[in-house]
Amino acid sequence: MELGGLMSYGPDILPLFVKAAQYVDRILKGGNPAEMPVEQPTQFVFTINLRTAKTLGITIPETVLLMADKVHE
Hints:
This protein is an alpha+beta fold.
């Protein structure tokens, strides 16, 4: 969002890196990757950039701001 995006909704990256490290640990300890389950992200983040909204002349409704996990000003 630092580059000027207005809104984003996607997986929280940190838990994905933690899960990847756990998989690497299991593989290095002899685990068979073919037997490990494929997992989907479970934590998502909704971010709004108010600076970009102001630049574009967009007013974000209060109800949408309340739904956001992060609001950049």
